Amino acid sequence: MEITSKGADIRQLPYQELQDWLIGQGEPKFRAKQVFEWLWQKGAHSFDAMTNLSKPLRAKLEANFVIRPIQEDKVQKSSDGTIKTRYRLYDGHLIESVLIPVPEENRFTVCVSSQVGCSLTCKFCATGRMGRIRNLDAAEIYDQVLLVNQQSLSHFGHPLTNIVYMGMGEPLLTYRNVLESIRHISSPDGLNMSPKRITVSTAGIAKMINRLADDEVRFNLALSLHAADDNKRSEIMPINDQNNLDILMDAIANFYQKTGNRISYEYIALKGFNDSISDADRLAKLCRRFPVKVNIIEYNPIDGGEFERSEEDQLDRFARRLRDQGVMVTVRRSRGRDIDAACGQLANKGETAA
User: Fold this and answer.
1) CA–CA gap between residue 140 and residue 68 (Å, rounded)
2) 20: closest CA among 9, 8, 31, 11?
3) What does each C-alpha distance from 119 to 116, 205, 241, 265 come to in angstroms?
4) What is the CATH number of the domain that holds 176?
5) What residues are annotated to the active site?
6) Domain presence at residue 34
7) pTM of the model
8) How many distinct structural domains can be found in the chain?
9) Which of 22, 213, 244, 348 has its CA 20 to 30 A from that of 303?
10) Is there a domain that residue 216 lies in?
């Protein structure tokens, strides 16, 4: 990275390069650790905040680098306690994050975005209609966790307990940045949040799931499944044409064998499309290869969408059929629907970047 002129983003600089630069400025090696702690452990968004550094060093950092934090743009609060925050990035683009509090279960989850928009065009998802504008860098993902954790403490007096990469974008299409963000979030030198509390959700990119297995990641994996046969899945998720269920199941089996990490299937119930008893039987069959939990999700309508939410009694029958076959099932009722914060609804509705 070019670091000889004002404007280099210091949070994109590897530790060793920062250390080399500081030594070149006549500073001792340990200064790099101090700067990194300010950036990734304390979440400093300005060099002036780095109070244990000398003023001359802070001035040098200011002259050579920038910090580009995300900026809160708009906050919406749902009647159920869910909070959606729109953030503006340094280049004017907008993303959304969602805080999902469930105080009675002592669970406070942030749903973070990994891209501005998404390229996958799943028919039930508003984000896919935006197209992919760009990937988020690791610091922009990290900032969502940092700021929503502060939001959770402020509103509920409780820190985040869970992090899900289920917001805007396909995390495995910005693989390096997602893994780097998780490293900073989970490292003792960063936010020190357990990777076992982190779940990365993918629409199903087999080669990247195999790469996760080879990298022996420590976080959990969720597959946005939504149909248990290839014809139906391809109809609503074009990515299935290149990553069909046989290929995906092999990749996920490999992931489980190499990591032992928890796997879940996300399954949006669409009325008259994928919510029949025969659909449940096909799904149960997919759940027999390795331990897996199924999260059945109420569909959240999007503008111009062609699907409807399953009837509640049909959804309950579907879930019961799975349980009768030994599948671990959770029915996730929609939260934040009234502020377009529920699953599949994130799209910066009615807004464009500056």
Assistant:
1) 8
2) 31
3) 10, 13, 15, 21
4) 3.20.20.70
5) 96, 343
6) yes
7) 0.92
8) 2
9) 244
10) yes
